[in-house]
Amino acid sequence: MEPRARAVLAVLLLLAAQVTMATGETRCNPGEYEVTSLRRCSKLCPAGYYVSKYIDRDHSVGECRKCESGTFRAHPSEESSCVPCSQCREADQEVVTECSPTSDRLCQCKQGNFYCDSMDCTESCFRCKRCEDSTILQPCNATRDTVCAVKIHPEAGGSACVLPTWLCILLAVIVGIAVIVVLSIAAAIITRHYRRRENPKEPGSPV
Ligand SMILES: *[C@@H]1O[C@H](CO)[C@@H](O)[C@H](O)[C@H]1NC(C)=O
Predict the structure, then answer these.
(1) How many angstroms does the Cα of residue 131 sit away from the middle of ligand 1?
(2) Are residues 97 and 140 in the same domain?
(3) Segments of the chain assigned E as strands
(4) How far is the CA of 115 from the centre of ligand 1 (A)?
(5) Is residue 22 part of a domain?
(6) In-domain check, residue 206
(7) 36: Cβ below 6 Å to ligand 1?
(8) Does pLDDT of 29 surpass 90?
(9) Ligand 1: residue whose CA is nearest its atom 9
């Protein structure tokens, strides 16, 4: 080929490439990516794999290799490596789901001691509240703090009812009724006793 013809061809190719880039068109199918330097398409590596060999003049077909242990790729890609899995914090986190080639390791706050219920605890979990001298209504879990029973008279000190409010009221009513019944019976017995003493000859009794 003449040098001049070669130059013209190069310019034409360059123009064609620019048109393709400008329109954003690729000739590749879904699930493929374009190897720009070769103007060819290559299949994406599936989730859990990375591209170990890109296609080039020597390798007409690219190669995929499984993510190495401790790394993952969640989606098909043309990346040449997998992503290192997250580490759960030793101090306040535990593993929910282990790392796999297609998914990252999932961590949560250590159940029973720590929790995280907002965006404020991404760096470290909050410590679970302790119910000092009231009962636990709902134990702490990874996403919710402990719920303690509310005392009816927190300022009255030792005499506070630590049970749920409705139960305290129910107990108070039952105790109240029991006291009234016992007092009524006692009153009836005492009244009868004194009446007999003051008035031994009751009408209708033998003379
Ligand atoms: C924590 O407890 C709350 C309420 O009891 C519940 O909705 C939530 O799913 C629990 N979270 C976990 C991680 O068990």
Answers:
(1) 18
(2) yes
(3) 32-35, 40-43, 49-53, 63-66, 71-72, 83-84, 93-97, 106-109, 114-115, 126-127, 136-138, 147-148
(4) 10
(5) no
(6) no
(7) no
(8) no
(9) 143
Count of domains in the chain? Answer: 3
Nearest CA among 109, 43, 48 for reference residue 74: 48
How far does residue 118's CA lie from ligand 1's centre (Å)?
14
Ligand 1: residue of 109, 136, 144, 145 to mutate (most ligand atoms within 8 A of CB) is 144
Q: What's the CA gap between 43 and 26, in Å, rounded?
A: 14
Q: What are phi and psi of 83, to 5 degrees?
A: -95, 135
Q: What is the pLDDT of residues 144-194, one digit of tens each?
A: 999 999 876 555 555 556 677 788 788 889 988 999 899 999 889 888 888
Output the six-digit token pair for 72: 């993952």
Range of the domain at 173: 152-198
CB 128 less than 6 A from any atom of ligand 1 = no
